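Journal club prep — side note

Before the paper discussion, L.F. wants everyone to see what a predicted structure for a comparable chain looks like in token form. Sequence:
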Amino acid sequence: MALNVIMMGPPGAGKGTQAERFARERGLLKISTGDILREAVHSQTPLGLKAKATIDAGKLVDDATMIGIVRDRLMRPDAMGGFVLDGFPRTVAQAEALDRIMIERDGGPLIIIDVVVPEAELVKRLSTRRICNSCGANADPFGDGAAGNRCKRCGGELVQRTDDGVDVVRKRLAVYAEATRPLVHYYQDRPTFRVVNGAQAPEQVARELNAQIDAVANGHSTRPVGRDKRVEPQL
């Protein structure tokens, strides 16, 4: 059975890192909406051209365009063996469209992972994280610090993001919590919805994530009592 995973979580939760790691270890395709949006724009597909016009106008890409771009990517042959989706869906309309795409693919259930981290820890992580000023990659807070101020990927200088000040971070988290609450409510009663404690060391998060996904994939869809209660950030 193909593994089809959605990785949810607030900024700073580490979901991107965990998504990439899980996909690599399981031989799955990792699909980042940022990457496929850039690919569509670069390829100048009809949807890509529409997205580029929207972006150039300083607006957010609308649901219909984003859904079309994601559908095109998920329907390619290399995605049929399973995927890890990072950054989509972001709205209930997108989630409903993804359900329709999954029916069309007929390639196994959708496993939803919500990586939850307390607000205080998120603020600490985001206000101290660094990115590469050359390639834009996030520095690994558990690894790059020992390597100095250079990016492991390209050797560029690691700097703080301009939007990672404490006050800005708190506002971003509040916006995320408000925007995603309906999406969590849409998914949370499904037996394939699981919560993972992201306030642990990366290795521990990875072990818990693997265990939760394997439990769903192996048919043990009843969630452990007390394990999947989502903690809303206190903003």
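L.F.'s comment for the group: Helices lie at 15-26, 33-43, 46-56, 63-74, 92-105, 119-128, 166-187, 202-217. Keep this in mind when we get to the figures.
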